[in-house]
Write a structure and sequence with these properties.
Elements (H helix, E strand, L loop, with lengths): L1 H7 L9 H10 L6 H11 L9 H10 L9
Helix pairs in contact: 1-2, 2-3
Length: 72
């Protein structure tokens, strides 16, 4: 997961923006809309800073059992 996070963090900030997170999901062939990604942010951005850190990123994939992610 750390490697996926690092690859998605294109500005090397240590956080993922909505756009970086969206691009990451698409690169993993997870078909989501930008609106869905924004919704995910509100749920998993625990510190409400409009960025996803590595812990929140992992929590999304490990703890997001109720999220319907569709891969093509």
């Amino acid at each position: 997961m750390r490697e996926k996070f690092k690859a998605a963090d294109t500005d090397y900030s240590g956080f993922l923006t909505v756009d970086e997170f969206y691009a990451c999901l698409l690169s993993m062939e997870i078909m989501v809309s930008k609106e869905e990604v924004i919704s995910f942010f509100s749920e998993f951005d625990q510190d409400n800073n409009q960025k996803i850190d590595i812990d929140e990123f992992v929590r999304f994939f490990v703890g997001g059992d109720d999220i319907n992610l569709q891969q093509q």
